[in-house]
Structures are given as C-alpha cells and as structure tokens.
Amino acid sequence: MPINYSISILKNKKTLQKKILKWFDSHKRDLPWRRTKDPYAIWISEFMLQQTQVEQVIPYYHRFLKRFPDVFSLANASLDNVMKVWEGMGYYRRAKYLYNAAKIIVSEYKGIVPNDYEALRQLPGFGNYTTGSVLSIAYNQPYPAVDGNVIRVAARLLKITKVIDTTIIKKIITPFIFDLIPDGKASDFNQALMELGALVCRPAKPDCRQCCWKHACLAFHEMNDPSVLPKRKKKIRGEIRHIAVAVVVKNRKILIARRPDNVILGNLWEFPGGKQKKEESIEDACLREVREETGITIRITNPIMSFKHHYSHYSIVLHFFYGRYLGGRLKNRKTTKLRWVPMQELTRFAFPKANQRVISRIFEDYGVSD
Ligand code: SF4
C-alpha cells in the first residue's frame, strides 16, 4: 500500500531533498514573484495561480501590483476597481477574497500579512494550499503546499493507484510531503516540487528520463505508463442551459446589471438576461427575462452572437440579442443594480470574460473607438 511505499521512500529522504533542490537551482523559471520575498506580492501571486496558468498570470500580476503596490492601497480601493483590474482572469471570487482579506490585514494586523498558520487560515480565501504556500514561500515555514502539480508528482512517486480524493490527499500525500520538507528550506523545496510537476512530471508526457527523482519513483520503475496516474473521479457531463441576453440600446446608452454578491461571478457587471424555460423560444425568454429583471419592455432587433461556456458540472449557451427600449421604468431589485451607461464607457466596468467579445462587437456595430 502507498503508505508503506512512502515509508521506504522516506528512507531516501536526504537524497530526494538534495536532488530536487539542486535541480530547482539550475532549472527554475525566472518568474516575477520569485524575485521577491514580499509576503504581499507572494500572496497575490498564489491567489492568481490557483486555477490559472503561469503565462496568463504574469501580465495580471504586474498590472495588479502596479495598481495596488501594497496591502494598504488594495484595502483602500473600491471593490469595483479591484474587479476591473482582475477582469478577464476568471474565478472572480478570488479578487473579492483578496480585497476582503486586505481590509482585515490592515485593520487587525497593521498591514502585515500574518506569519501564523491559524491567523492566516482564517482570512478570506485562505485554504490549506494557500496558507501553506504563503507561509512556506514568503516566511520559509515548514508547511506543505499541495496543489495539482504536487499531487501528481506524489501519486506517481508513491504509485498511488486509487482514485485521488480528499482523504488520500489528507492522509497520505500531505503528511508525506510534510515529512520530506528539508530543515530551513521550505520555501525552495515547495517551489521545487511544484516546478517539477509543471516542467517534468507533466500530466500527459512526463519526462521521466530527465527527472531528478527517477531513481526512487515507483510509477517509473513499475508501470509502463506513469501518466495514467493520478487517477481522478470521472467528470459527470452536466446539462446544457440556454441563456438569453439582451444588449438594450437607448440613445446610445446600454443597460447593464450588477450581479449579486453571493452568486458565481458575483459583483461583476453583465447585460440583463436569464435562463430559457421549457417550450419557450430563446427570443421570448429574452423579452421575459428583461421584463422580470429590469421592469422595462424591449423589442428584439437582431441577434448578435451565441457561444458556449463550460463550467465544472454544466455548460451554458449564451445567446445575445440587440434590444430596443420600448417603455417602462427601471426597477432596481435588492440584489441587482441596474444602470444605463454610454456605450463608450462600457470598458470602465468589470464584465465576465465571455462578455468581452460582445462589447467589441457593439463597438464595431456602433462605430465606437476602443
Ligand atoms: S520519474 Fe517520471 S513519473 Fe516519476 S516523478 Fe519523475 S517525471 Fe514523474
């Protein structure tokens, strides 16, 4: 069983530590957050790197730190500004967590990112991974930072053939990594492990021949194809929802709505619309949703575009239409804020990524320069 394997592998602990640190020294990528020990900057990078590729994060990281160079500037900003700087990176809840945590760090910790596990873990958005990564990378404290890369390396090194679930992560992988952290080298070791997963022990084609841990890796020695690990639960293909969305135009102004705080993509702006009901045409759904959501009536003039978007358990197809305002007064509901904004000002508001294409199309159709 893996737990026994891990004990035998841990007998080679010193060699494993030495090899991976040496490899990291000569192979690590020169990433902007590796040039600093500022806990604030490291915290920002770690939040950004969750669910997002390194290459995509780099420009956002620079932009974010330019706009909010320290925790005070972030805490004193408006949520709208923070969302705007984050716009396009997805998983917007992370931006809100950063903002809320910054406020707490300023009010309760004099602007210093706590270096204590319990204090950090209680801040918004800090899970086991983020807490471990910030404490180890910024403060060199010996906490594991178990992300997808680390899980993959560990599952192969230990040849864990069971489906990886939270119990295996908690009971086997995390303690194993915790035992492996070399004294006084937590920062480099955790980064090295993530880097090994990203560059060598890749999901599809692990480069085992070049791997500094091949001497100890059970998947490499005992399996034909280590890339079959880690085993994951099969994703269930969810339903497809059709969403009708109206770009309502009135005197070159466009109607936008702010999403409530407690929903997916919360606090971002969007065009009004909603889910198509059974046996309802998509155009009828658009008219009904606008009426229910805003209190006004519109006439659909023409379709703009449709596209699909995938979430973990379901997919949506967004159907965008131009709508002309006919009558009625806007009714701001408690949970949604509505605004007419001049077309050329649309880019001042933070929209979900999917809407960017629509905004570009509006600019094109109405001759607005970006
Ligand atoms: S030997 Fe191959 S499978 Fe094992 S840790 Fe290295 S790259 Fe991954």
Tell me the layout of helices and strands.
Blueprint: H1 2-10, H2 13-27, H3 39-49, H4 54-67, H5 71-75, H6 79-86, H7 93-109, H8 117-121, H9 128-139, H10 148-157, H11 166-180, H12 186-199, H13 218-222, E1 240-250, E2 253-258, E3 269-270, E4 273-275, H14 282-294, E5 297-310, E6 315-327, E7 337-342, H15 354-366
Parallel strand pairs: 1-6
Antiparallel strand pairs: 1-2, 1-4, 2-3, 2-7, 5-6
Helix pairs in contact: 1-11, 2-12, 3-4, 3-9, 9-12, 10-12
The structure holds iron/sulfur cluster (SF4).
Q: Can you walk through the features of this model?
A:
The relative contact order is 0.10. This protein has helices spanning 2-10, 13-27, 39-49, 54-67, 71-75, 79-86, 93-109, 117-121, 128-139, 148-157, 166-180, 186-199, 218-222, 282-294, 354-366, and strands spanning 240-250, 253-258, 269-270, 273-275, 297-310, 315-327, 337-342. Strand 5 and strand 6 (315-327) form a beta hairpin. With 370 residues, it is of the alpha+beta class. The chain has two domains: 2-228, Endonuclease III, domain 1 (Orthogonal Bundle), CATH 1.10.340; 240-366, Nucleoside Triphosphate Pyrophosphohydrolase, CATH 3.90.79. The radius of gyration is 24 Å and the shape is elongated. Strands 1, 2, 3, 4, 5, 6 and 7 form a seven-stranded mixed β-sheet that branches. The chain is 45% helix and 15% strand. It contains 15 helices and seven strands. The protein binds iron/sulfur cluster (SF4). Iron/sulfur cluster binds at residues 153, 156-157, 200-201, 206, 208, 211, 213-214, 217, 219-220, 226.
